[in-house]
């Protein structure tokens, strides 16, 4: 995940961002509550489709892993 997400105290005070951007990863999840991925990518052009999909897949993997541990 380190190739998709970057955490640097000098960028948004260490908030996880998409690598090579200043776009918080959390913004993707917040946006998808009401809008589509295509609309998100139009509004955050520095984030690639591949980055967004990788983050969503990773989040899904974490959910699956958490379900297994219960």
Structure commentary:
The protein has 70 residues and is mainly alpha-helical. The chain has a single domain (5-69), classed as Arc Repressor Mutant, subunit A, CATH 1.10.10. Helices cover 51% and strands 6% of the residues. The protein has helices at residues 25-32, 37-43, 49-69; strands at 5-6, 17-18. A two-stranded antiparallel sheet has the order 1-2.
List keywords for this structure.
about 50% helix; two-stranded antiparallel sheet; globular; single chain; Arc Repressor Mutant, subunit A; 3 helices; mainly alpha; about 70 residues
Overview in brief:
This protein has 70 residues and is mainly α.
Shape, please? Answer: globular
Question: What are the segments in which pLDDT stays under 50 over at least 5 consecutive residues?
Answer: none
SSE order, one letter for each helix or strand: EEHHH
Total E-strand runs? 2
Bin the helical content.
40-55%
Count of runs of 4 or more consecutive helical residues: 3
Largest sheet: 2 strands, antiparallel
Counting structural domains, the number is 1
Strand order of the largest sheet: 1-2
Please state the average pLDDT score. Answer: 90
Q: Output the CATH class name.
A: Mainly Alpha
Superfamily (CATH H level) name: Winged helix-like DNA-binding domain superfamily/Winged helix DNA-binding domain
Fraction in beta strands: 5-15%
Question: What class, by secondary structure content?
Answer: mainly alpha
Q: Termini, distance in Å? A: 24 Å
Indicate the CATH topology: Arc Repressor Mutant, subunit A
CATH architecture: Orthogonal Bundle
């Amino acid at each position: 995940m380190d190739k998709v997400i970057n955490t640097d105290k000098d960028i948004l005070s260490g908030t996880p961002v998409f690598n090579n951007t200043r776009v918080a990863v959390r913004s993707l999840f917040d946006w998808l509550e009401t809008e589509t991925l295509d609309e998100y990518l139009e509004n955050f052009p520095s984030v690639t489709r591949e980055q967004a999909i990788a983050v969503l897949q990773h989040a899904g993997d974490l959910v699956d892993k958490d379900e297994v541990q219960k």
